[in-house]
């Protein structure tokens, strides 16, 4: 038997995790003196309300001991674990996972994957890992599948305001003012595990730019597509859905997920993105 573990920055809702038999180890979200387990003690909506009220929010990876406990508990049930986590260039989470596997002497049974991404593309990886487990695939085949998905998928996000990137130390105050003055917004993506700017577009043009980029990359290839959105905004999510429906993309499977507190703390409410993966990888 094979179990699938990830961390809370996959941003899958509890019912979706249960549906796929996926377990998570939560990151910590710190607001002042308060400490919260991401997605367990703090819902995304509460985090965004606090951000908009001016709160300073920090995040921290799970402690090594928390991974040790999770691994011991799951290895009492499963022969192997596929443990897929957010990029090691963004967080020490995957490093803590590896250290926990080493400490309990189970590195051969715990297969740890640095996804190189976070939020929706990470979710796609763990969902596909779970589907492969259900199909009876052995660990080495699942790891190969994840490598192929990582190479094939594309994710881009629009950050509607630069304020939260600046608050988190990822942008200077001068950079924020310049970006706002020019009316430009970054479209961000992932490269070698880092969050990097793909390009800058004028405010209001981000969604169209992402769609054009995906159309150029995938053409008429059948896709699995995920929309990730920071905040409960039915109108905003509806606009992204409508743009996909009106595009040339062949979306065969789609889902919508919220961006959780640990990720949302660094990008702020209103951030959204699209992750596309070929249906057949």
TrEMBL record:
Keywords in alphabetical order: Lipid-binding
Q: Which domain of life is it from?
A: Bacteria
Q: Which GO terms describe its molecular function?
A: lipid binding
Q: What Pfam families does this protein map onto?
A: DegV (PF02645)
> SUPFAM superfamilies, alphabetically?
DAK1/DegV-like
**Keyword Lyase tagged:** no
Gene3D superfamilies with a match to the protein in the record? 3.30.1180.10, 3.40.50.10170
Quote the NCBIfam families the UniProt record gives.
Answer: DegV (TIGR00762)
Protein name as catalogued: DegV family protein with EDD domain
């Amino acid at each position: 038997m094979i179990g699938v573990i990830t961390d809370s920055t996959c941003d899958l809702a509890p019912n979706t995790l249960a549906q796929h038999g996926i377990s998570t180890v939560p990151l910590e979200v710190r607001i002042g003196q308060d400490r919260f387990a991401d997605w367990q003690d703090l819902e995304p909506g509460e985090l965004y309300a606090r951000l908009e009220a001016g709160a300073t929010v920090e995040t921290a990876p799970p402690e090594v001991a928390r991974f040790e406990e999770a691994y011991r508990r799951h290895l009492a049930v499963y022969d192997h674990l596929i443990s897929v986590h957010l990029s090691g260039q963004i967080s020490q989470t995957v490093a803590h996972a590896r250290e926990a596997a080493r400490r309990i002497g189970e590195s051969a049974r715990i297969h740890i994957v640095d996804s190189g991404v976070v939020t929706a593309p990470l979710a796609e990886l763990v969902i596909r890992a779970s589907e492969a487990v259900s199909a009876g695939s052995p660990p080495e085949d699942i790891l190969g599948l994840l490598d192929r998905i990582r190479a094939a998928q594309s994710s881009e996000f629009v950050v509607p305001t630069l304020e939260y990137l600046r608050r988190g130390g990822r942008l200077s105050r001068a950079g924020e003012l310049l970006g706002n003055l020019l009316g430009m917004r970054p479209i961000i993506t992932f490269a070698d595990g880092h969050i990097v700017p793909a390009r800058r577009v004028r405010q209001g043009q981000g969604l169209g730019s992402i769609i054009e980029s995906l159309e150029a990359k995938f053409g008429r290839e059948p896709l699995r597509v995920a929309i990730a959105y920071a905040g409960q905004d039915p109108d905003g999510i509806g606009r992204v859905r409508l743009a996909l429906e009106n595009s040339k993309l062949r979306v065969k499977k789609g889902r919508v997920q919220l961006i959780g507190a640990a990720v949302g703390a660094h990008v702020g409410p209103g951030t959204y993105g699209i992750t596309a993966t070929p249906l057949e990888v």
